[in-house]
Design brief:
Blueprint: H1 6-13, E1 19-26, H2 32-41, H3 61-66, E2 73-81, E3 84-92, H4 100-108, E4 112-118, H5 125-136, E5 140-146, H6 149-153, H7 159-194, E6 232-236, E7 241-243, H8 245-256, H9 260-266, E8 271-274, E9 279-282, H10 292-309, H11 313-323, H12 329-333, H13 337-348, H14 351-362, H15 371-378, H16 390-393, H17 395-401, E10 411-421, H18 435-457, H19 462-487, E11 498-508, E12 511-512, E13 516-520, H20 526-532, E14 550-554, E15 557-562, E16 565-569, E17 571-572, E18 577-581, E19 591-594, E20 613-619, H21 625-638, E21 643-646, E22 652-656, H22 659-673, E23 678-680, E24 687-691, H23 714-722, E25 728-729, E26 735-738, E27 745-752, H24 755-763, H25 765-779, H26 789-805, E28 818-822, E29 829-833, E30 838-841, E31 845-848, H27 854-873, E32 885-893, H28 895-913, E33 953-954, E34 957-958, H29 959-976, E35 980-994, H30 998-1007, E36 1011-1017, E37 1023-1031, H31 1038-1045, E38 1051-1061, H32 1073-1079, H33 1088-1097
Parallel strand pairs: 1-3, 1-4, 4-5, 5-6, 29-32
Antiparallel strand pairs: 2-3, 6-7, 8-9, 10-11, 10-19, 11-18, 12-17, 13-14, 13-19, 15-16, 15-18, 20-22, 20-23, 21-22, 24-35, 25-26, 26-27, 27-32, 28-29, 30-31, 33-34, 35-37, 35-38, 36-37
């Protein structure tokens, strides 16, 4: 196929029904980029001989070196089938778990996806992850089983064994899909069950319970992958062939004389053909019969491979002639059999026809977007579609219609920003000269030559010649300037050598160059806008009143994404993927652009991998700090997953998803964005602090309390030194603290939360955040936001889960008394208010028994919560966040404050009687200092503190500040009197390895304190999958070490999983005779918890 012109692509973009936006998803090394190469070569963009070797969409140097894709990149392909012409916007995505955020950005702007599975390795962990991502975004998948050649060449399967193996892979994938479907149906049924039912009929005698799960009526016929449905293709991308069973059904229907429809149903499955009767029968009627798929398809492919690998020239010639193909002399003579196979198969079963044909027939166009997906995209957080304003709900029709009329609202979603070299932009490329320009330049060159000759011929004309030559030089200079201006205009994106292009898709309306658009931030709410601006407004975007999280921008330039190249466009019709220039000042990572501000921002992208690996970076030469800061800002914008922080210590910190991701970010920083030499710290290991129940046995498994204590008990000494004077601690761990001015007393106790509760709190952090916003708006007296029915149900379900797990005497009534969550008001710690006078709960908001004290208690209550937030943000052991702890505020005594308030009121009354200028000054309680003259009666009455705030400020500062500090200290001491533990971040580690290197894998894991959870053999292969957990602290260099030790036969995938308590006590020292005997007097054997504490403390 010849290379298509830009005009042809623009014409194809206008027919929305024939556009297919697809992405290729798979586990790492399953052949995504090789498959993409084969599809690209069908358009003549690259040579078919280079397909699979070039890896065209891996445009970065490090992608080519490592052999893995690190970013998602798009290309537009043209495909014609049966008189229809299609535009396929193909996006290749990474399979490595560190770059799973790039998969999220690709999936959001597609309507369908190709799930690629390696025929040998089968379903891998990342295959499951990408299938789940596709399911959550409501996009339709199709299956490509790749690397079938490995079954022939490596595993040496017979066709029948290969058929069984492929059937097994299909069953595994369909089981995964079925699990996702079942979960969805059961969730919907649970939602319906929780909705209020209509009143039952009083005449009905007994109530009938519905035992059905809802799965009986749910239609899942279109859901599963099956070759007879046409959504499965078998390929070998590296050898350039692939087929769906339609291709063979068409051929054999003519040869055998059986209808094509019958063959389509029976070519896959346990059917065999009775050649005498020319009938297709079920295989179980006669044992030992070959299924049709084996007999008619696989055996032919196997015999071709067999002939070529054995160099049977006669057989090869026979096959080539019978298939009506042409084999070039070069390929026929070539020493490598793979070249011959590629030459024959790419003509016989071209992979591009099989895959693109399936894409165009089976995957949806932008017009087929489902209502469910639109509603999901428009509802952020815990909102529901019905709760959105009517103007916003009206946009759903525009989404579904994908209209390109002028009246249709323009809606564009930017899924990521990517950096390109300014020279790669179409407007900055040197364009070829036209014939007229060449003629003009030739004429100028002739003139200059003539002038030079005239100047050298004789002195009489020297003056004139000099003048002429000066003019010539001048024009030459002008021409040079004009030429350079024409060839190299200043990069419009304004960031030096790197320009940012937005990777986006038009969902509705036509995007035109120069059009003004609204940029909606993730926190923007159309409700707020519609309240501020009257309905039916017709002001230009710049004339609107300022609305939070709403900005205006211009679409400066539009680009067609062609892999490594960009082509300039004037307008883009709906349903297309495009690049937009000039948005780098408005969009950080992703955003929604809309011509109407009543559109809500799209729901944020969900990332599978959590950024967990932190390093501090600094320039080698301190004078280059501004370049580093600017470079990190650009890096933050260019990578969807990376986080850039400045610590309180002033360190610049990069947070990345894993080692490979970290290396890529550092390379980008030094070579592209900052362009300076940088120093990188050792990885900063994250920890959490927690407390546990007191242990029952000591370090040598002796029961505590029965051993013979010897020498000086170090532990109790250390415990005593922890708690300073003036703090009361009772035997059960209740810590009582007084504020510096001795007016308020707080008593706090810390208790470890059950693991299940900590997990529930982590999972529901978004819900907790929305509850927090609601209670804060209630307590501020603002109009409460309307809570939708579903949100209320979620909150009550969350509360129910907490009550279910917090049972027993000590947790009685705790859930109702939860005052706040922390840190950052949505973390995995709880503050419980058990005081008598003031009740405040996250479920209901503040409630005070004595109404007169309402405002004072409420204001001071915020200080208590702030102290709790600070204490949970940095624990006492090594300033790391606290996790899984419940703080009970058991006493909050303000009686002295009230007494002082009463005495001050009495003094004030007396001062009003005393003549002016003779007012006394009250002494600061607990100190000999005098208060300032401003407390005297000479000040006018407006200056006196408002009621409820008298005496709240003294020489120790405001009482609210003192309460924050006191509460923080009380929480920290409450933690210190309990057995403290560190929690380490853990990775789940999936390793695929052959049986002969399994021992080495286990050796590397045990050396790094890993724990194997499960090991199973892949059926029909010699591959094992090992599932283990590994501390993040021990993971650096793990992948390289495993590859070295196993000679590249095992490769791990690390994904952050959970936090795990390190069981040993970081403060432990031997105290009993047995412990002294076992550990020695110094106990200098390495304590893992102390080692980790050292790692955290060193910072």
């Amino acid at each position: 196929m010849v290379l298509n012109s830009l005009d042809k692509m623009i014409e194809l973009q206008k027919n929305t029904a024939n556009i297919r936006n697809i992405c290729i998803l798979a586990h790492v090394d399953h052949g995504k980029t090789t498959l993409a190469d084969c599809l690209i070569s069908s358009n003549g963009i690259i040579s078919s001989r280079l397909a699979g070797k070039l890896r065209y969409l891996d445009s970065r140097e490090d992608e080519q070196v490592r052999g893995i894709t690190m970013k998602s990149s798009a290309i537009s392909l043209h495909y014609a089938i049966g008189g229809d012409e299609y535009l396929v916007n193909l996006i290749d995505s990474p399979g490595h778990v560190d770059f799973s955020s790039e998969v999220s950005t690709a999936v959001r702007i597609c309507d369908g996806c190709l799930i690629v599975v390696d025929a040998v390795e089968g379903v891998c962990p990342q295959t499951q992850a990408v299938l789940r991502q596709a399911w959550l975004e409501n996009i339709r998948p199709a299956l490509v089983i790749n690397k079938i050649d490995r079954l022939i060449v490596e595993l040496k399967f017979t066709p029948h064994e290969a058929y069984s193996h492929l059937k097994n892979i299909l069953e595994q994938i369909n089981a995964l899909t079925g699990t996702l479907f079942t979960c969805k149906v059961l969730e919907e049924r649970a939602e319906r069950a929780s909705e209020p039912q209509a009143k039952p009929n009083p005449e009905q005698g007994e109530q009938v319970y519905d035992w059905s799960a809802g799965l009986e009526h749910a239609d899942d016929s279109q859901l599963y992958f099956s070759p007879d449905q046409g959504n499965v293709v078998f390929t070998s991308a590296v050898d350039g062939w692939g087929f769906g069973i339609e291709h063979f059904a068409k051929i054999y229907s003519q040869k055998i004389g059986i209808k094509k429809e019958v063959l389509l149903k029976t070519l896959w499955g346990d059917y065999y053909i009775n050649m005498k009767a020319k009938k297709i029968m079920k295989a179980d009627q006669a044992k030992g019969k070959k299924p049709l798929f084996v007999q008619l398809i696989l055996e032919n492919i196997w015999s071709l491979y067999d002939a070529v690998l054995k160099r049977d020239k006669e057989k090869i010639d026979k096959i080539v002639t019978s298939l009506g193909l042409k084999l070039g002399a070069r390929e026929a003579r070539h020493a490598d059999p793979k070249v011959q196979i590629n030459a024959i198969c790419s003509q016989w079963l071209p992979v591009s026809q099989a895959v693109l044909g399936m894409v165009c027939r089976k995957l949806p166009s932008p017009l087929d977007i489902t209502a469910e997906r639109v509603e999901k995209l428009m509802c952020t957080g815990s909102q529901t579609f019905d709760a959105l304003p009517p103007e916003t709900q009206a946009l759903k029709a525009a989404f579904m219609k994908c209209g390109s009329e002028d009246t249709a609202p323009v809606i564009i979603f930017v899924s990521k920003m990517f950096a390109v070299d300014a020279k790669a932009l179409p407007q900055n490329k040197p364009r070829p000269l036209t014939q007229e320009e060449i003629a003009q330049r030739r004429e100028r060159a002739r003139q200059r030559h003539a002038e030079k000759l005239a100047a050298t011929q004789g002195p009489p004309a020297a003056g004139g010649a000099l003048e002429a030559s000066a003019q010539g030089e001048e024009t030459k200079g002008d021409e040079h300037l004009v030429g350079s201006a024409a060839l190299k205009p200043l990069p419009e994106e304004g960031t030096g050598d790197e320009c940012f292009i937005a990777f986006a898709r038009v969902f509705s309306g036509v995007a035109r160059r120069g059009k003004r658009m609204f940029v909606l931030g993730p926190k923007y709410s159309p409700v707020g806008f519609l309240q501020r601006v009257p309905s039916g407004f017709s002001t230009p975007p710049d004339g609107l009143p300022p609305v939070p999280h709403l900005a205006c921008c211009t679409l400066e330039s539009l680009y067609l994404l062609m892999g490594r190249e960009l082509q300039g466009l004037e307008e883009v019709h709906p349903g297309n993927v495009l690049g937009i220039g000039g948005l780098q000042d408005f969009v950080l990572k992703s955003a929604t652009l809309c011509s109407s501000p009543s559109c809500p921002p799209f729901v944020p992208l969900s990332f599978e991998a959590t950024p967990i690996v932190r390093v501090a970076v600094e320039p080698k030469h301190p004078s280059e700090m501004p370049q580093l800061v600017r470079g990190m800002k650009l890096l933050n914008q260019a990578d969807p997953c990376v986080q850039v922080l400045i610590q309180e210590t002033g360190e610049h910190v990069l947070v990345t998803a894993g080692e490979v991701h970290l290396q890529r970010c550092l390379d980008d920083l030094t070579e592209r964005f900052a362009k300076i030499e940088i120093s990188v710290s050792e990885p900063i290991i994250p920890f959490r602090e927690t407390i546990t129940k007191p242990p029952k046995v000591d370090m040598v498994n002796e029961e505590i309390g029965r051993q013979q204590k010897v020498a000086v008990i170090h532990q109790t000494r250390e415990d005593q030194s922890k708690i300073p004077e003036g703090i009361q601690v009772d035997p059960e761990g209740l810590v009582t603290l007084t504020t510096p001015n001795k007016l308020a007393v707080l008593s706090v106790r810390a208790m470890p939360l059950p693991e299940e509760v900590t997990q529930i709190l982590e999972e529901n952090s978004d819900l907790i955040r929305s509850m927090e916003q609601l209670t804060s708006s209630l307590s501020d007296g603002r109009n409460a936001q309307t809570i939708h029915q579903k949100t209320q149900e979620k909150i009550s379900e969350f509360r129910g889960k907490l009550e279910q797990h917090l049972t027993g005497r000590k947790w009685r009534g705790v859930v109702d008394q939860i005052w706040s969550f922390g840190p950052r008001k949505c973390g995995p710690n709880i503050l419980v208010n058990k005081t008598e006078g003031f009740q405040n709960s996250v479920w209901t908001g503040p409630a005070v028994k004595v109404s007169g004290e309402a405002s004072r208690y409420r204001d001071l209550g915020n200080s208590i919560v702030s102290g709790f937030q600070l204490a949970t943000l940095s624990g006492p052991m090594c300033e790391e966040p606290v996790m899984g702890v419940c703080f009970l505020l058991e006493k909050w005594d303000l009686s002295k404050l009230e007494e002082q308030g009463a005495s001050e009121k009495h003094d004030q009354e007396q001062r009003d009687v005393v003549p002016e200028g003779q007012g006394g000054a009250a002494a600061c309680p607990g100190s000999g200092e005098d208060r300032g003259p401003q407390d005297g009666g000479s000040e006018p009455s407006e200056k006196t503190p408002p009621k409820g705030e008298s005496s709240l400020t003294d020489c120790y500062g405001p009482l609210s500040g003192q309460l924050i500090a006191t509460m923080k200290e009380a929480c920290r001491y409450a933690l210190q009197v309990k057995p403290q533990r560190l929690m380490a971040a853990m990775y789940t580690c999936d390793i695929m390895a052959t049986g002969d290197v399994l021992g080495r894998v286990y050796a590397v894991l045990s050396k790094r304190e890993g724990r194997v959870l499960q090991e199973e053999m892949k059926e029909g292969t010699d591959m094992f999958t090992v599932k283990a957990v590994l501390p993040v602290a021990e993971s650096f260099g793990f992948a390289d070490e495993i590859r070295k030790r196993t000679s590249g036969l095992a490769s791990p995938q690390l994904v952050f999983s959970h936090w795990e308590v390190i069981p040993s006590d970081p403060f432990w020292v031997p105290t009993t005779e047995e412990e002294y005997l076992h550990f020695g007097e110094k106990a200098d054997a390495e304590n893992p918890a102390r080692k980790r504490r050292g790692l955290a403390g060193r910072r």
